[in-house]
Amino acid sequence: MAILNAGAMRQVGKDSYEMATDTKAFLTLTWHGAHSGGKGELPDIHASVNVADEVANGQFDLYFCSTTCLRGFLNYCVDELQERMESARSKRKRSSSSAREHAKTQKSERA
Prior knowledge:
By secondary structure, the chain is an alpha+beta fold. The chain has one helix spanning 67-110; strands spanning 2-7, 9-13, 16-19, 24-32, 46-56, 59-64. Helices cover 40% and strands 37% of the residues. The chain has a two-stranded antiparallel ribbon with strand order 1-6. Strand 2 (9-13) and strand 3 (16-19) form a beta hairpin. The model has no long low-confidence stretch (mean pLDDT 87).
């Protein structure tokens, strides 16, 4: 089987660690586009997909029957992230378009 595991350990000695049972784990895929004049794909766009959220005891494992299933799951998560990126971009375009139309209306009303 293929396993995706994540978590945190608390250091209790020089080379000694234990489970951090008072923490919660998470796994998130995030797109953070360029901002402040930066260059890059989908600037000023932020999107994320929570794969695991608030998992007790700060650790978790996701089990898959094969690497094919693991790959399918990860591809699904990345596809969802891309959909959210595109959705954020579309909303931003609509918002920018509405703001331009509003500014035009305000300008023509003053004239």
